[in-house]
Amino acid sequence: MAGVRQFDEEQVLVDALALFWKKGFVGTSMQELAAATGVQRGSLYNAYGGKEALFIAAYRRYLAKYMQGIKKALAQPQLKDALAAMFDFSINLIRTDRRGCLTTKTATSESATPAIQEALRAQMDTLKACITERLMQSPQELALPVADAALLLLTHTRGIVVMERLYDDPEQLRNSAKALVQLLVK
């Protein structure tokens, strides 16, 4: 039928994401995406319009799942526990298959297009808003104003990604996160 996708879109996004994660946006060709997904290049172009749009669709799908995990972690009743759970979730995720963080890997690549940079900024804004929302439940427990604490926590989530790549030491990452939480939460 014309206009009906003849492939499992969820699986295509999973397979495309895995390839982008491994090779980066620029390092991944449409031919490789077709091979990885089992979908003809023409069908990928028809469905997504191009490599950039496919990357953004795969990235957004991944981020929806990532944010579910972050929200679950931040739902802990005690603020210190919530922040520790958020960092534990993030540390465990970046260590999965030693892939690192797709957002940070892509953001530090000089090849990110304006549309991809916008998708990355939107993710950081979403994560910061989620952190801010949780901090607003316990502002009296913070050593800093909520906005400053949220920005510091967001920035630290990016810093642990770099440290993980350099040192491959999850205990060091957890200790760093724990120290930050101890400084921020009275």
Automatic annotation (TrEMBL):
The keyword DNA-binding applies. Residues 29-48 bind DNA. Pfam families: TetR_N (PF00440). PROSITE patterns: HTH_TETR_2. SUPFAM superfamilies: Homeodomain-like, Tetracyclin repressor-like, C-terminal domain. Residues 6-66 form the HTH tetR-type domain. PANTHER family: HTH-TYPE TRANSCRIPTIONAL REGULATOR YJDC, TRANSCRIPTIONAL REGULATORY PROTEIN. This is TetR family transcriptional regulator. It comes from Gallaecimonas xiamenensis 3-C-1.
